[in-house]
């Protein structure tokens, strides 16, 4: 091999930042905060990361408002997540409270209730044959993890079980739920 010896140069931080952002965006949409965090892990200086992200935002490759709307639609449709769980996820992804609120406002309350109704029906069908109290607890827990308020879930469970087993079957079920953090906390009416 002839010529001068190869010199190891430090990579250009801007090129590294662009490469990180493009690689991540090629696999899935990301929030600006997620991209900034990935760049920070690779020791990209904050001012360089900010400049690259500003440019990506300017040309439309990064759009937190659209990302939030897309995440709300897809997570609700695909996973059945409720507003509370979606809000938590948006916060974890670095979406501002204002953009998160706007995206969540697009989720129709009737659509959210219809999704909860389908999830209740599916969970109760999968627990058929078990004791009714066990079915109720498991349904409350499953929908609680998806962000649905226990009071709404209990109302839908009572409605479904009344259709499935008759009105007498739900007479022993609680009508109110302690809306604390424990989805298993049921109070008798």
Notes on the protein architecture:
- By secondary structure, this protein is mainly alpha-helical.
- It folds into three domains: 13-58; 64-105; 109-187.
- It is 64% helix and 2% strand.
- The protein is built from nine helices and two strands.
- A two-stranded antiparallel ribbon has the order 1-2.
- Strand 1 and strand 2 form a beta hairpin.
- Residues 181-189 have low confidence and may be disordered.
Keyword list:
mainly alpha, 3 domains, two-stranded antiparallel ribbon, 2 strands, disordered C terminus
- Overall shape: elongated
Can you list the strand order of the major beta sheet? Answer: 1-2
* Structure summary, number of beta strands: 2
Strand content: under 5%
Helix content: 55-70%
> What is the radius of gyration computed over CA atoms, rounded to a whole number of angstroms?
24 Å
Overall mean confidence score, pLDDT? 88
Distance between the termini: 87 Å
Q: Uncertain segments of ≥5 residues (pLDDT<50)?
A: 181-189
Largest sheet features: 2 strands, antiparallel
Question: From N to C, what is the helix and strand string?
Answer: HHHHHHHHHEE
For the record, the count of structural domains works out to 3
Distinct helical segment count: 9
The assigned structural class equals: mainly alpha
């Amino acid at each position: 091999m002839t010529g001068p010896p190869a010199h190891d140069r430090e990579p250009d931080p801007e090129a590294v930042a662009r490469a990180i952002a493009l690689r991540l965006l090629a696999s899935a949409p990301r929030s600006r905060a997620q991209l900034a965090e990935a760049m920070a892990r690779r020791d990209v200086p904050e001012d360089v990361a900010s400049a690259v992200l500003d440019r990506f935002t300017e040309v439309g490759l990064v759009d937190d408002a659209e990302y939030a709307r897309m995440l709300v639609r897809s997570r609700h449709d695909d996973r059945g997540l409720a507003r509370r769980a979606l809000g938590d996820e948006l916060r974890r992804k670095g979406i501002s409270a204002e953009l998160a609120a706007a995206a969540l406002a697009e989720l129709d309350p009737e659509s959210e209730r219809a999704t909860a109704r389908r999830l209740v029906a599916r969970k109760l069908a999968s627990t058929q044959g078990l004791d009714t109290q066990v079915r109720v607890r498991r349904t409350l827990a499953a929908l609680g993890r998806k962000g649905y308020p226990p009071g709404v879930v209990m109302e839908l469970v009572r409605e479904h079980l009344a259709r499935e087993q008759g009105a007498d079957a739900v007479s022993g079920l609680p009508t109110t739920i302690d809306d604390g953090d424990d989805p298993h906390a049921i109070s008798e009416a």
